[in-house]
Amino acid sequence: MITFDQVSVQYEDMAEPVLRDVDLTVEEGELCLVVGHTGVGKSTLLGAVNGLVPHFTGGTLYGRVTVDGRDTAGHPPRELADVVGVVGQDPLDGFVTDTVEEELAYAMEQLAIPPATMRKRVEETLDLLGLADLRHRALYELSGGQQQRVAIGSVLTAHPRVLVLDEPTSALDPSAAEEVLSAVTRLVHDLGVTVLIAEHRLERVVQYADRVIHLPGGGLVTTGPGAEVFRTSSIAPPIVELGRAAAWSPLPLSIRDARRKAAPLRTLLGPEPPPPARPGTTTEAAPILVARKITVSYQRVPAVREVDLELHGGCVTALMGRNGSGKSSLLWALQGSGPRASGTVRVGTADGGKPADPRELSAVDARRLVGLVPQTPTDLLYLESVEQELDQADKESFAGGSGSAARTVLDRLAPGIDDATHPRDLSEGQKLALVLAIQLTAAPRVVLLDEPTRGLDYRAKGELIRVVDGLAAEGRAVVISTHDVEFVARAADRVVVMAEGDIVADGPTTEVIVASPVFAPQVAKILAPLPYLTVHQVTRALAEGEEGR
Ligand SMILES: Nc1ncnc2c1ncn2[C@@H]1O[C@H](COP(=O)(O)OP(=O)(O)OP(=O)(O)O)[C@@H](O)[C@H]1O
Ligand SMILES: Nc1ncnc2c1ncn2[C@@H]1O[C@H](COP(=O)(O)OP(=O)(O)OP(=O)(O)O)[C@@H](O)[C@H]1O
């Protein structure tokens, strides 16, 4: 269905080609998972399938890509739209109409599908993706996850024979992600649709993949069954890390298979409580931020309802909850620039002065109290090069800055980004790393991160955890709004769960997520009822057990 014949892609300002002499065949009805580190070329590979690369991205494509027999060199994306449906990383980028219903119908209109069929498919898709209540909503009024659902729905309605999904679940809550992926799997099994998915949260997708396409770097592409590729790959979901640590063979890729193999491991770990998942930072007694009765409404519809929240220095809090439950709205209200219908926010200053409401300060002063990295980080990038962005951040931080603080953070999160690169040309993960670096340079006392792990690979997430640990150790309060349960298991001391604008759970991470069918990480599911969250806890417990003998 898809063939790559000696394909190389070279972008103008890069020394090396992103893809080099790639040969690849994807059969009809196959679901292939595309994996690789940030910036390695996954989006480029996917973009070549519908001609987006190089028709829209620039650069040069050598060799030949065909889809359903059509050569993409001679067919721009528009002429492939009846065969290939594409969902890109940023849903807003792809929207062409104004409302949910219009967007779901748009692709079908272009293909001149009869109105009665269109109606039926729109209704089916609204139900499938839980969008029925939002059908008349303007797209820009939706939460990030709701937008991603629409983007996926608008492609599914056209019933393409090839689906190309670039991180389709990055903004979805865990249940929505599962629903979308099982719907896609149904299309594969029942209709023979061919699917390519690039995804960093492998824990969500490995069990659905027929085959894994691995980009190890250097423009190379290798493929094989998941159980083989993950035996040695440098990126692996927790289930694979656990399987490797326990020497399970063949490597299980579903929770069910892993649980079957895990009985001896459970016995070995025994009844003792696991070692802590995180290095305990000492939490300060007095809160840095106190929010009381925060309410946020849009056109009088409440998104956040009278929420009370206290944030302590040294503590990392994860903010979780379904798409549209009010997480982003709460963060922006705390930071001061978002709408707040009522309620108060008080943030203590570093010098022990009178607590202030960030909403009442100048933007620069507010940013030293509360920093927020938004869900679409590109909103904060407006200069011409990476170097200019970093310099600007250093200038706005402490008294002028030394000119290298922002670069240091960036290099930890995503090494090797050239100063001269235009921020627009960075991969999604690289953009996020840049914005994080810029915000963290101002060293605010309260750091709010909205979905920071979108587009980050495991290595970058590990770095982000170290950065976050560092912030907590310096006595800052950190809040991370996220759907990434594996990240929460490793990064958070406390979990706050929102539902329909209210806080419905608040407690230590282990207590809140271990027994939750939605929020439990893979290790917890595999080892239940033992309260383990991370592979690291398991390997440490095993090592301590060895020493004890
Ligand atoms: N239009 C472009 N012009 C110049 N360079 C580009 C362009 N698009 C991507 N690149 C560069 O090519 C490399 C591969 O980018 P690509 O987006 O394919 O990576 P990726 O594996 O999808 O990354 P991520 O996991 O972060 O999405 C990156 O170094 C990126 O900076
Ligand atoms: N500008 C707006 N106008 C109208 N409604 C809005 C607007 N922004 C958000 N909403 C609605 O408010 C509710 C809360 O949105 P919010 O973005 O805070 O949710 P969230 O928990 O961050 O979601 P996600 O996990 O999908 O990012 C949602 O139902 C959303 O549709």
Any chance you could write out the topology, listing elements then pairs?
Layout: E1 2-10, E2 19-26, E3 31-36, H1 42-49, H2 52-55, E4 60-67, E5 70-71, H3 77-80, E6 84-87, H4 91-94, H5 100-110, H6 115-128, H7 144-156, E7 162-166, H8 174-191, E8 194-198, H9 202-205, E9 211-217, E10 220-224, H10 226-232, H11 238-245, H12 255-261, H13 263-269, E11 287-298, E12 301-312, E13 316-320, H14 327-335, E14 342-347, H15 363-369, E15 370-373, H16 386-396, H17 405-413, H18 428-441, E16 446-450, H19 458-473, E17 477-481, H20 485-491, E18 494-499, E19 502-508, H21 509-513, H22 522-527, H23 535-548
Parallel strand pairs: 3-8, 3-9, 6-7, 7-8, 13-17, 13-18, 15-16, 16-17
Antiparallel strand pairs: 1-2, 1-4, 4-5, 9-10, 11-12, 11-14, 18-19
Helix pairs in contact: 5-6, 5-7, 16-18, 17-18
The structure holds adenosine-5'-triphosphate (2 copies).
One adenosine-5'-triphosphate is lined by residues 11, 13-14, 18, 36, 38-44, 57-59, 425-430, 455.
List the uncertain runs.
Answer: none
Q: Strand-residue fraction? A: 15-25%
Largest sheet: 6 strands, mixed
Q: What gap, in angstroms, lies between the N and C termini?
A: 57 Å
Mean pLDDT: 90
General shape: globular
Please give the oligomerization state of what you see: single chain
Provide the helix percentage. 25-40%
User: Which kinds of small molecule does this entry bind, naming each only once?
Assistant: adenosine-5'-triphosphate
Query: Helix/strand-derived class?
Result: alpha/beta
Number of helices: 23
Number of strands: 19
Alpha-carbon Rg, integer: 24 Å
Strand order, main sheet: write it out.
6-7-8-3-9-10
